[in-house]
Design goal:
Mean pLDDT: 91
Strand order of the largest sheet: 1-4-3-2-5-6
Largest sheet: 6 strands, parallel
Strand content: 25-35%
Distance between the termini: 34 Å
Shape: elongated
Number of strands: 14
Radius of gyration: 23 Å
Order of helices and strands: EEHEHHEHHEHEEEHHEHEEEEEH
CATH topology of the largest domain: Rossmann fold
Number of domains: 2
Length: about 300
Amino acid sequence: MQIIRSLNEIPHNIHCACVTIGNFDGVHLGHRKLFSRVIELAARCGGTSIAITFDPHPLEVLRPDGVKRISTMQRKIELIEGTGIEILILIPFTREFAATGADEFVQKILVDKLGVKELVVGYDYAFGRGRSGDINFLREQGKQYGFAVNVVPPFQLYGQPVSSTRIRELVADGRIDLTRELLGRPWQIRGKVQRGQNRGGAEIGFPTANLQFSGEELVPRYGVYACRVLLRGREYGGVANIGRNPTFREGLLVAETFIFDFKDDIYGEEIIISLLEYLRGEVRFESIDALRTQISADVKEAKRILACRA
């Protein structure tokens, strides 16, 4: 997949440009319907499938409280590449760009830069200053400039549209099982293992691999989860605690994961934690013995869940 990070880098010889536009945060099943439609249309005309997205997420710029990303930009790129899209255009999003009118965006980017022939959008898509570029506007523009507008209906599960907003709500509530269905993959936490206080192994008997969260990441509901851990190309079972470790009053927001049947030193190594099921909330224990007993019960339950999913 070709990645274009500036409008000035767009090739001038794109044939039959089939384009979709969106934030695509999480690249969930609804987004994948858009990509599939773009790829299908491009195959029909021997053209090029193109996705346009924005970096950073527009709400990070426009809203004081920003938005917690479902996926990092790098992960979004990886996921979009996996769909088969040929060109991904990353438009730098600034307050100045936010002032661009919908008509200017269509003319200068979609028509002049790309020569769009097929435009694919979701049923509720709107863009441009004041979100004036809605479906009706796009259809009128299509008639004027000679491109077709394909509106993809909502992709629904359990009677509700799959959306990034819905996924954020589910993650915050610890509904990792349903989140997986909307994303089409497990909820994952990725990063390099960092040193903690070394209490897990020395004091408690359950050594953990610790990952810290950045301020931009969407953090699942605090508590304990059954999980799988991808490490050095191999998958292990595990149990992860997400939170601020109230028993020791450390306050740092981390994911602490006890990896089953693994004892190597992995500080500084990349791991991927796939959350499978929420087990319980985060609790402050009065003693290390009480904490140890509870972790033993958590491990037993996580192993039961993993065995059922084997």
